[in-house]
Amino acid sequence: MKYIENLLQEMTVAQKTPLQKILGLKDTNSEEILKKLSKILLPAKGLWQDPINYRSFMEKIAVKNNLSFIAHKNIPELEKNLYLNLFKTEYQKLSDVEKEQMAVEMEKAGLDRNQIATLGGISALGAAQLSGFGIYILASSTVGAISSVLGITLPFAVYTGMSSAISFVIGPLGFLVMGVMLYRSFRHVKSWEEAEEIFRASWKEMVNLAKGDYDRATLAFKYIAASRIVLEKTFNEESAEVKHHIELEIKQIASIQEEITRKTDAINEIHKSVGIQKTNARNLEYEIRRKEQELQLVNNKLASLHGQISNVEREKNNLRDKTTLKQNEIQSYNEKIKQIKNKTDKINTL
User: Fold this and answer.
1) Phi first, then psi: what are they for 223, rounded to 5°?
2) Which domain of life is it from (predicted)?
3) Rounded to whole angstroms, how far apart are CA atoms 332 and 317?
4) Cα–chain-centroid distance for residue 73?
5) What gap in Å lies between CA 91 and CA 122, rounded to an integer?
């Protein structure tokens, strides 16, 4: 029963409650549900007998309803095919008048002719051929009808994600998915209190079966198979929505990454420019240091030249002083020569 166990793990308490009531259990404990399902089709309630697995469970229901059962198929395919074939069997038991009455009632409930035709076409189609909408609307009907008949308030719109068109689930099609006899018993009821009384009365007959409770097991199977279809669609829709959000996030991330790339390129260009400027600055610093060194050499030369100039100036001054002395001496000599000349001239005149 691992396949059912996986389904139960995904179901809420409200979603498991119909199974609890169908199986006559005290609560929605998954282990108790699995235990009951593994023995419900065994004689004497399965006392002192080994429990059966889900494949055997479905095979017994198929044999009981004279339906073919292909043992080599996987469990999901078997479950869906058996579920649809049970509906086909019930639908084909209806008279043409009853089928037309159902169509009229479903149209009143909000379905259009195409949707009604899709459901009616199930009787001629297999699981592989049936449209996703057709099998989903049938599964939604099963879940909603069984829940309603058992007096369980299930948040149906939230549970299925369907539109108001699903309102027919508590109408003729809803009862049909539970069986033609129930449909024929319920179609004239005027209130749900009346419907519950009829259901409870028929329920007592189910409980008293001695060779395996096939009516209860079949109803439980229909609810399980339908719930799986409904939940799969819900999960697929949620998954699609999550994938859509992921795609949007991926696009935003890609856009951000493009912006980061642009900014990175701009930063790299700035770094490149900074590198060039640093190189230029280093070259300038080197040139400045070189010029400073040259300037220092020039200053040293200038200092040396200034020293030489000072020495020359001192020597010049010394020479000027010597020149003045010599000039004074020459002048003195000239004076003496002049005196001598005067004396000579006097002598010559004597």
Assistant:
1) -70, -40
2) Bacteria
3) 22
4) 34
5) 9
Residue 292 lies in a domain: no
Tokens 């004279």 belong to 66
| Ramachandran bin of 111, using left for φ above 0, alpha for ψ from -120 to 50, beta for the remaining angles | beta
Which residues lie closer than 8 Å to 235 by C-beta, 6 or more apart?
10
Q: How many other C-beta atoms lie within 10 A of the C-beta of residue 13?
A: 9
Determine the Cα–Cα distance for residues 330 and 339; give it in Å rounded to an integer. Answer: 14
Identify which of 55-69, 176-190, 274-288 has the greatest average pLDDT: 274-288
Q: Between residues 337 and 167, which one has the greater pLDDT?
A: 337
Measured CA to CA, the distance from residue 103 to residue 118 in angstroms comes to: 11
User: Which tokens hold the place of 32?
Assistant: 């108790």
In a domain, 223, yes or no: yes
How many structural domains does the chain have?
1
Angle of helix 2-10 versus helix 54-64 axis, rounded to 10: 100
As a whole number of angstroms, the distance between CA 143 and CA 233 comes to 14
In a domain, 211, yes or no: yes
Q: What is the domain range of residue 169?
A: 2-236
Is the Cβ–Cβ distance between 230 and 159 less than 8 Å? yes
State how far Cα 17 lies from the chain centre.
Answer: 31
